[in-house]
Amino acid sequence: MIKIIFKEHSGAVHEVTGTEGESLMDVAMNNMVPGIDGDCGGDCACGTCHVIVAADWANKLAQANGEEDALIGMTPDKQDGSRLACQVVLNGDLDGMEVTLPEFQM
Amino acid sequence: MSTPLTADFIVDPYSVPLDSIDVSDSRMFLHHTAWKAYFERLRNEDPIHFQKESDFGPFWSITRFEDIQFVDKHHELFSSEPAVVIGDMTEELPLEMFIAMDNPRHDEQRVAAQPVVAPKNLAEMESLIKERVDIILDSLPIGETFDWVDKVSIELTGQMLATLFDFPQEDRRKLTYWSDLALDLPEVTGGDGTHEVRNAGLQECFQRFNELWEERTKLSDAERADKFDLISLLQNSEKTKDMVDRPMEFLGNIMLLIVGGNDTTRNSLTGGILAINKYPDEFEKIKKNPGLIPNMVPEIIRWQTPLSHMRRIATQDVELGGKTIKKGDKVVMWYASGNRDERVIDNPDAFIVDRPKARHHLSFGFGIHRCMGNRLAEMQIRITWEEILKRFEKIEVMKEPSYVKSNFVKGYTELLVKLTAK
Ligand code: HEM
Ligand code: FES
To answer: Nearest CB to A70: which of B120, B368, B374?
Structure first.
């Protein structure tokens, strides 16, 4: 079990768990964490699963590919640590990771 | 052989051989079931379909949900230049719009224009939209037959556009007029418009916006920083502050927002009314539980699919579904078909307000060109339905609607309704 802490923009905190190989988006959806739309179903094609990964954790993640970068580049609320949740895959190193949800999805 | 426009339209696609059906024939959309049957046949029998001849030249039709998502996402394989409608734009006015640009220009221009419809701005606009919706709905006649398209859908989207540009409200019907002209040509979308009328209209539009631009430049930087209309935003951004000197680009961006934000939302507002009449149990559901409105909004947008297609040009040979699309070939993604693909959407013809995963639809496209105004459109439709439910017990469609003759804009010219107050 890998623990993930989702913080909503309002401040509400959801401590949930996922398993290796699941995406951050799967974990949020499976645990009814609000604030992610995921319109394209996890295909890196819509940008509506935007999350912001805390700095300490961001460098533990695999680099975003060009597609993900392109969509994040078009996201009005982008910040340092912005990622698409459907493209971040869980592994043991990410146990305890903190992720913030943006105020709006694009 | 394709069907020339003078030939009789064939309502039943199963009555002819597969390679003689023509899904670019705009008359298909004048008929409320013909287009569905045409696409159903292609999805089942030849989902990546090459049509050798049409009024728009040879083209590939992509008709299944997942194949459309693939093409839309792979902008490096499928270019949006020089146009995204099935027919090529006329040479006289080669408008430059970022919807029809590849990178890097696409990203530059989109990022400059985006703040105008970014969710933060929208939150500020919400009360304004609600006020406008209130006024429009309160002015409607009760118990009398009237045209919902004219009195509600056009009115509301016109007011909204005027707000986005900070364009004089009293002239908002001009925006609707220019929008309707923009794509209405036989060789572009199978419409009935003429070049003369279109060019005159676009000239006038361009002039008006030039004047607006001039007026806005007279504002001080501080004054302009407070404004969130599109023109001020373009003027505030380094890359676009001189756009007025590039007329085709300036007019292109203006037209993109006018057309993008007009027909689409308008036809969703009308489509929703038709949908609840065809599926009255769903209207009862939403009346009992208005909390379902946020789920009903994407369902309306899917069910309507306000834009039937987007087109691309292959940048290299691409294998798709056992076919080879050659470099340079025209590729048409039929969203109207993908949104009815039973492989991905259960019972896709049905309008279901509490449909699971209602947001998983193709109407806004996918990838870097995905609709920039999606949140504005959703917000307008949501507010309109919230206010409708507060006021009306019944919205009865009095006659089958009349449809727009276009293979691109999927919508209505008239929908006669009668209201019963609550
Ligand atoms: C229900 C309403 C709407 C629908 C169904 C719709 C549909 C679409 C579609 C299909 C695309 C192209 C996507 C692609 O190629 O993958 C698009 C792009 C676009 N739409 Fe919308 N649209 C709607 C409302 C709006 C509104 C309200 C605005 C603005 C005020 C708008 C502005 C744009 C712009 C600027 C683009 C170009 C984006 C780009 O190329 O990066 N749309 N829209
Ligand atoms: S779900 Fe669409 S990009 Fe992640």
So the answer is: B368
